[in-house]
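Per-record layout

source: Panthera pardus
name: Olfactory receptor 9K2-like
length: 320
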Amino acid sequence: MGDRGTDNHSEVTDFILVGFRVRPELHILLFLIFLLVYAMILLGNVGMMTIIMTDPRLNTPMYFFLGNLSFIDLFYSSVIAPKAMINFWSESKSISFAGCVTQLFLFALFIVAEGFLLAAKAYDRFIAICNPLLYSVQMSARLCTQLVAGSYICGCISSVLQTSMVFTLSFCGSRAIDHFYCDTRPLERISCSDFFIYRMISFFLSSIIILPTIIVIIISYLYIVSTVLKIRSTEGRKKAFSTCSSHLGVVSVLYGAVFFMYLTPDRFPELSKVASLCYTLVTPMLNPLIYSLRNKDVKEALRKILGKKIFLFNSILTVT
């Protein structure tokens, strides 16, 4: 497989991203939808990071993880959306071999890092609710930094392995990737290599990446639910559940879309594209809304920033 992969590198110089199989007149509508969603992603996630960095009250482990989650959402959507929007206007819809490698590498890095970061956030909520008196001791700044750094390192290692495996395959057939970005399954469809060893290694990698994060999230929430049900006051239970509902919503959307995409049979590529949209664009757009709308601290910090801007604007108007 290695020799064939080497030959493949000298033969294939670019790929064609087929994108969505719709009528040409709908490309403008799709471009505008992508543009609107991407603008909301930029506004929401940059806004969330700005609020967290500028408000001292949000200098806590929970918001440290949330700020990094916004950073990841911003960057992995930026790996996908701009190229997809360009291709709505492009006749060739081509992407260079190096560009395809880079896109897959960065996307895999950030999506895996997000999975580990969501697991770290679940652990943070577990400590906050089940051991509140020890929260500040156990969730120290050092541990939080290590958890976030570990998420990026795991994402990087996973991405290097996954990207290396995919691009040692031989692409001796069509160069047309039936997707709107370079992803593993569409690339597999245009390869003529033997997939037995490749799929065994891929399954092993997926297992050691996905299973630990899901197990941490499930066990954390089992303990959280058990602890919350022991709270006698209805108000106390409601407050405890409200701190976790946003995170659970994000986890459900992300993992639900990923599983749906990778479990969809190859004969339904359009369904895979729709599922991909959920975790490449819809989830990064919704995350800031979910976390801000259900969080009093974030809403108060946002009001404070907007209040300062309005006051400054009024002062300028008064002077002039």
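summary: The CA atoms of residues 259 and 275 lie 9 Å apart. Residues 1-10 have pLDDT under 50 and may be disordered.
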